[in-house]
Each structure stands twice: as C-alpha cells, then as structure tokens.
C-alpha cells in the first residue's frame, strides 16, 4: 500500500543535483526524477478517468494473480484449481469432492506467467540452459552470484539466472545504469556473461530436445502449434514455387506445360477458345439432335428417365 501510494501521489518538484553532490546522491536524484515522471503520467491518466490517486487502494499479488487466472481471458482454468493454488478453501463440500490434480494446477501456473492464451506462444518454455551442466559452470555461477542461497533453492536460482542472461540485451537497453544489477559479478565479467548466455534458449517444447517438458497446455493450444507448422510449410512451398517460376528452368518448364495442356484443350488455343468452350458451343448449335439421341438411349435401355435425364429432356443441354 505504501509503495502504491508513493507511485500514485502527485509528484513534488525536486531540485537538480548541485555540483557538490556525490555520485551516489546524483543517482538518488535521477531515481527521484524518474519516479516523478511515473507519478505525473499515472496521475494524469487517473484524472482523465475522473479519479484521484487516493481513490485507489492496493490488491495483493495473490489476489491479483487469482483474478487474472479466473477472468483474464475467455478460456480460464477452473475455479477449484485456482483456489487450490491460492490456498483458499472451497467449502466443506467442494473440499471433499474437488481435489487437487496436477494438470489443472499446471494450467494455473502457466496462465499466471502471462503468455497469450489465444496463441501457440502459450506453450513456450521459459528461458533455460539447453544442456545439462556437465562442466559445473552453471553451478559455480549460482554459488558466486547467490552465495547465501540454500541448496534447496538452486533450481529456482538456475531459472532466475537463465532469465537474466536471456534478457541481458533488453535490460541493458531499458534499465538505468545506476542499478545495482550492473555492479554484480555477472555483468562485471563479460566473458562469463557471454559464455553462460550462449547456453540459454527460450523455445517451443519440441525444440528443447528432452531437456524440459511443457505442462499445463490446453488442447486448443496444441492445435495452434499444429496450425503454425502447416502455415510455415505452405509459405515454404509458396516461396519455392515463386523461386522456380522466376528461374530460367522454371520458365521453360512452364512454357512446355502450357503447350501440352493446349493440345488437350485445357488451355485456350491461338483463337482463344478451349476444348470445353468448343464442346459447349457444339451442344448449343445441335440441341435438338442431342435431345433425340438421349431419347433413343432411354428407349433402347427400356428404363425410366431419371430426374437428371428428365431435366435434360425438358431443358436440353445448358450453356
């Protein structure tokens, strides 16, 4: 609540740092000025909606995550799975008959991370090290960067390190240079950073080569993944056809194919008339004769004219 109120309160004008300020004081001034810009933007947006900063209160991370899981899209996890993950009671009856299941819990966990539910990207894996740490380099980096971390948290630290490495370029572009992150051992040792970064990937499940398996993926997302593959295949075929047509060999083959199809009547001849058009014109010019032939065939077979045959007898061949 205190943090939210500080962000949303009207900004105070702060004086620029004097020449006598130390670097640390100047950094604090920069942070304060940056916060002023955020406060100004948020306050202006709230006022455009007819609200004041003090009109809003805080919402806990757990409540916000549960709300997002339950109503953040039109395809949400079940309420019982959300309540189980949040640690809330569903009441005596539901607690007895609706129990925890891994699939629903995994769906909740994946939804909380925020990928788009209406895209194949919902199935994407988090940044991770693509190979097992056979050299021990990743473990050494974790011990160096998180010296007081208990052993039971090493799995979490590995994913945290992989995420920072994967987003290193983004962080350098968007994070202020006075942040403590840039003073860490990881960013002070460029060689170690680049070596570890080359081991990190963020990919779809089938590209992980068994290193990780995706869980919590609903059936329709699997269909999205399949559709993306089909679209990619069609686009590849289209590119290859265009490249073939643009090549000299393709132009020659196309000309030969047109010549052959023209001989059998599929392509118009020099007069612009195809075999189909020629046949249709002949039927129109000899409609009565054609109808007589149909009658003779029916009489010889001794059968009754079917519905389509009666139509031909009544209307004759159509253009």
TrEMBL record:
Region (Disordered): 1-31
Start-end of Polar residues biased regions: 11-20
Protein name as catalogued: Uncharacterized protein
Organism of this sequence: Guillardia theta (Cryptophyte)
């Amino acid at each position: 609540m205190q943090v939210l109120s500080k962000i949303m309160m009207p900004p105070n004008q702060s004086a620029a740092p004097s020449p006598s300020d130390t670097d640390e004081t100047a950094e604090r001034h920069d942070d304060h000025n940056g916060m002023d810009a955020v406060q100004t933007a948020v306050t202006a947006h709230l006022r455009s909606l007819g609200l004041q900063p003090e009109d809003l209160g805080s919402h806990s991370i757990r409540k916000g995550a549960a709300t997002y899981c339950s109503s953040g899209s039109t395809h949400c996890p079940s309420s019982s799975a959300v309540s189980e993950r949040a640690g809330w009671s569903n009441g005596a009856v539901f607690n007895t008959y609706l129990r925890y299941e891994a699939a629903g819990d995994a769906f909740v966990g994946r939804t909380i991370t925020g990928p788009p539910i209406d895209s194949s990207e919902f199935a994407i894996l988090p940044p991770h090290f693509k190979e097992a740490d056979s050299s021990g380099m990743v473990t050494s980096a974790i011990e160096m960067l998180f010296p007081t971390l208990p052993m039971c948290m090493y799995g979490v630290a590995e994913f945290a390190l992989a995420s920072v490495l994967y987003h290193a370029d983004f962080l350098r572009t968007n994070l202020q240079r006075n942040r403590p992150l840039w003073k860490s051992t990881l960013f002070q040792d460029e060689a170690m950073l680049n070596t570890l970064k080359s081991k990190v990937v963020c990919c779809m499940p089938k590209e992980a080569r068994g290193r990780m398996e995706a869980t919590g993926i609903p059936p329709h997302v699997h269909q999205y993944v399949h559709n993306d593959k089909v679209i990619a295949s069609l686009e590849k075929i289209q590119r290859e056809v265009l490249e073939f047509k643009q090549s000299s060999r393709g132009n020659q083959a196309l000309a030969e194919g047109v010549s052959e199809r023209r001989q059998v009547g599929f392509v118009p001849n020099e007069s612009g008339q195809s075999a189909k058009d020629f046949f249709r014109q002949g039927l129109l010019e000899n409609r009565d004769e054609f109808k007589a032939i149909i009658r003779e065939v029916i009489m010889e077979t001794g059968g009754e004219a079917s519905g389509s045959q009666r139509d031909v007898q009544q209307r004759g061949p159509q253009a």
